Amino acid sequence: MANLGIPQNTISIIQKYDFHFQKKFGQNFLIDPHVLEKIIASAGIGREDFVLEIGPGIGTMTQYLCEHAGQVMAVEIDKNLIPILEETLQEYQNVSIVNQDILKMDLKEIAEKENDGKRIKVVANLPYYITTPIIMELFESRMPLESVTVMVQKEVADRMQAEPGTKEYGALSLAVQYYAEAEIVANVPPNSFLPRPKVGSAVIRLTCHKENPVQVKDERFLFRIIRASFNQRRKTLQNGLANDPSLSVSKEQVAEALESMGLSATIRGERLSLQEFAALSNLLK
Predict the structure, then answer these.
(1) What's the pTM value of the predicted model, to 2 decimals?
(2) What are the angstrom distances between the C-alpha of 193 and each of 6, 11, 125?
(3) What residue ranges do the domains of the chain occupy?
């Protein structure tokens, strides 16, 4: 099968099937072999790996994955792409194509059934409108993950690896840090895609922690605190947390906890590190 990383091969298969891009699925197909090779190398894909690919499109990256991985499961939501995938991947014996919404699948079960419960690698060119829900679902599903290497909007990649005190830093930065170590491995211009998106993209690799970097009494409470801290970004942490009905903590309790941590009563959430949020959550719990 022709290499789909080459633009004219992508165009000819799209024309052959009279495929129309669907805005609701955020479809942008990668047409840059250098970027594809960079993704495979960054994800460290080898013959012993089971790879879950989310949103294979016409199978461009899937071809590269099949060349390097032991087994690939490609999950595609758009049923119009299934016949195309069956053609573009027909010569590979190590791939299964699943027509499903990844957010409705039992991810833990995939690892158990397909990979004997061993850690798997996720690779994806994610639709930008649904990047965060998919990444959070991967982490929160408790699926045994080794790494998640994804193409996302550049702005989202910056938020994932942002440090406290920066304007990009927020709830997503903290959630990603809690589960993984984030590293942007490539910036990708709009002309690497068909159709061209309006914004720049980046490939980010999230290497999952074997053990959480912080110990908390109640994980859900920690993330409620984090969300409440950034819901009203300009407010002090005291006001943000006291105003959130899901937390039921008073301004006094927050002030007391902050004081015992040696932090100012007027501090904002964007100044706190993951370790400080964990300590605050344990004190308030």
Answers:
(1) 0.93
(2) 11, 11, 11
(3) 7-208, 219-284
